[in-house]
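It would be a great kindness if you could assist me with a short task in structural biology. I am sending you one protein, given as its amino acid sequence and as whole-number tokens for its backbone shapes. I would ask you to consider whether the tokens describe a fold that such a sequence might reasonably adopt. The full record is reproduced below for your convenience.
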Amino acid sequence: MKCKNCGFENKKGAKFCTKCGSSLSEVIAEPTPAGSDKGSDNTKYIIIALLAIIVLLVGAIGFFALGGDNNNQSSDVSQDSASQDDESVEAEESDDDAQTQSISSSKSSTSSKASESKSWELIGSYSGSGSGSETIEVPDGQIMVKLSAFPIKNYATNHLYVSGSNGESGGVDWGSKSAVETRSDSFSYTSSSSEVFTIDYYETVSWEVDFYRYQ
């Protein structure tokens, strides 16, 4: 190996010149392999292609993510709309039920009031004494008859009888051994037409017959 300083030819592999002691080491630049520029260019293209693919993937993922959010939002809106419709229907049904209950309650109240307003009302009162008979006409409806009499003495024939054209009747009488006292009787019936009643009385101090109608 030749020394660059003094030109002495040294042994191969020597690190220092045997003559002048100069260092024989030197950096030898390795030659650049042919086609290395093309490899570098190919690497650049590969990197660019990878970056483009990454960008496309990111864009696609973002697109599908946004599309899914929009679909979820649409679904939520649809569900909210359906829920509001259901609530509206339930509210209408509740109002209908309330109105029905109110009408039923009103009818029940009206019926109850109508029933409560009815009572037995006096439609005719007849009285007298002694012996005799009277004929009267009683209107249709639900009728109740009340009668009472007091005899002159306890004869076997003392009486007060009330009988109608419909076969309804009632009365009081006394036997010869009966106590001299006031006796009473009553009966009721229902008729769709007016009826004629006869009041027959004998040997009485006083008598009274009252007619009531349920109205």
Summary: The two ends are 151 Å apart (CA to CA). The first helix runs from residue 36 to 117. Residues 135 and 198 are 4 Å apart (CA to CA). The helical segments are 36-117.
